[in-house]
Write the C-alpha cells for this entry.
Amino acid sequence: MISSAMSFTRITLAVLALHLLAATGLQAADPLPSWNDTAPKQAIISFVEKVTSDGAPDFVPAAERIAVFDNDGTLWSERPMYFQAYFIFDRIRALAPQHPAWKEKQPFAAVLNDDLKSALAGGEHALLEMAMATHAGMTTEAFHDIVTAWITTAKHPKTGRHYTQMVYQPMLELLDYLRANGFKTYIVSGGGIEFMRPWTARVYGIPPEQVVGSSIKTKYEVRHGRPALVRLPELNFVDDKAGKPVGINQHIGRRPIMAFGNSDGDFEMLEWTTSGPGARFGMIVHHTDAEREWAYDRDSSVGKLARGLDEGPRRGWTIVSMKNDWKTIYPPAK
Amino acid sequence: MISSAMSFTRITLAVLALHLLAATGLQAADPLPSWNDTAPKQAIISFVEKVTSDGAPDFVPAAERIAVFDNDGTLWSERPMYFQAYFIFDRIRALAPQHPAWKEKQPFAAVLNDDLKSALAGGEHALLEMAMATHAGMTTEAFHDIVTAWITTAKHPKTGRHYTQMVYQPMLELLDYLRANGFKTYIVSGGGIEFMRPWTARVYGIPPEQVVGSSIKTKYEVRHGRPALVRLPELNFVDDKAGKPVGINQHIGRRPIMAFGNSDGDFEMLEWTTSGPGARFGMIVHHTDAEREWAYDRDSSVGKLARGLDEGPRRGWTIVSMKNDWKTIYPPAK
C-alpha cells in the first residue's frame, strides 16, 4: 500500500511537472530573423506548420521529416571556385616536395606556378585527377586530420574569412528551425563526403552520418596489427545531378519531403523530393547579390542555374533571391 | 520590467518542474530480463554504465555512442539457410510464368522443382545470380512493396513462425537498453539493404537510414514525367567481412564503440570497432542451443564461426552462449 501510494504521488508530481513545463513556454521568437518577411520565409514557415500539426491533412510523422541540403552554393559560398578546389591546390603545394615530377606535369605544374586558371582549364577531369593525387594514399583517419587542420586555418582569398565563416546565416537558422520541428537534416553534396564530415557537426549541426557526398573507394587493411581504412585513387560514387537521388536512397533509404539546392546539379534531387506523395517542398537559392556575395546563374561555370529557373516555379519550387530575401549573408565575423 | 519579472517566474517554474520530474524516477527495472545473470549481461551493463557516466574516465559523448549489429544469426535466425534465400526462392516461383526459360535453366529449374539442395549447390555465385534475377528490374518503391508483402505473410518451414518472429528477444531488449542510454543503433549486414529496410523500424526500432547492407546499383529515370529509381542487375557493394568496416565508414563516417556479430563474416567489423581508442565493446553470439534454436559454429556453411572463437576472447570480446546466457530465444508467439 505504501509503495502504491508513493507511486501515485510520484505520478501526480510528474503530471504537475509537465504542466508547469508547458506553462513556461515563452511566446516563440522569430525562428528565421535573417530572412526578410517575403514569400520564401512565409512558404517555409507555412510548410513546416502544416506538416507538424498533428491531425492536419498534411501531417508527416517525425520519422519521415527528412530535409536534404546541397552544400556548395546552398549552405556556403562557391566562388570564385569550389572551396574544395582551394584545399586540393593547397595539398598539391604541401605534397610537391614528395612529387618532384609534378613540376613538369600539368595540371600540377600550373598549380605550383600559381596559375590557377590554367590548372582549372582541364575542367572536371583535371580537377578529379588532382583530387585523386591528393585525397588518396592515406588512412581515413589521417585524411580527417588533414582536412581539420586545413579548414581551421585556411582563408578565402577574397573575403579573408575562414571558409566555415562563409556559410549562410539564413540557412543556419533554417537548419535549426527544421531540427526544432523534428526534422532530420542531411547534406547531399557533389563535394567529397570525407572533406565535409570533419566539420559539418560543428558548423551546421549535421553529424557525419547525415552527410552524403562523392567518394573514392577505401580498403580495409591490418598493418602491423593495426587495422585501418586506406583511401584508394579510385572513384566510388559521384553524388551530383541524377546521382543525388541515388545517393539519397543509398544512405537514407526514404524520400525526403524538403530539398534545398542552388544549381542545376540539384535539379534531380529537387524533382525526386517534390514528386513524392503528400506535402513536399523544394527551394532554390538564387545568387543575385553581387554586392554582399556573388551574382551568377545561367552562364556560370560554377553553380550553373538555368533549368531550375525555367521549370522551378511551375513545379511549385520556391526561388530565394539572396539580395531581396536575406537580411544578412554571413554570420558576424569572429 | 513586467516582462522580465514574468520571464524570471517562468524560468523558476521550469527549474522546479525539472526537479520534480527527476524526483519521480522510479527504481529502474531490469533492462535485460531475458538475459541470465551471467558474465555477458554483466559485461554489457558495466560497459554501458562506464561510457555514460559523465565525468568518468571512459565517458563517451552521446553523439559518439554508435553500436553496430550484424543481422543474420545475430538479431534473427539464419537456419537452415539465410531467410533472404527463402525470399529469393519465393520470388522465382512467383516470377516463373514470365520466365518460361527458367524451367530448363539451373539453378532456377531446381528451385521450381523444390530441390533446394541442388539450387544451393552452386554456392554464393548461384545465389547471387538468383538474387539479381529477382531483385532487379523494378523501381525501389515496387521492391519495397514486394518485400513488405512477403515478410508479413511468409513463414519459416521449420518453426511455422513469421520470419520477423524469429528475432532474438534478448537482442531486442539490448537494442532498447542501448537506445535508452543514448546509443544510435545500426544494422551492418551482408544481407540486402533494401530487403531489410522495409521492416527494421517495426521489428527492431532501427529506421531505414540506420541500415547498412549489400546493394545493387540503381538508376534515376523519369518515365512518363514520373521520376523513379530503377534497380539494376549489377552489384554495387558487398557488405561482408572486410567490406563491413568499409560500409560503416561510408554510411556512418565514424568508428562504432560497440559491435555485435555471430560469424567470421563479422570479424573485421568487431576488429575495427574494438581497436579504436577509448572504451570498446565486442560481442559474438555463439549458437549453442540445438534445442531452442540451432547449434553450429566451425563446420557450418551458414554463419561459420572459427576465428572469432579462437581469437575473440584474447581480444577482449565477450562470447555469448545462447544456451547458457539467454533465458528465452524468441519473443512470445503472436
In short: Residues 1-6 of chain A have pLDDT under 50 and may be disordered. Residues 50 and 56 of chain A are 7 Å apart (CA to CA).
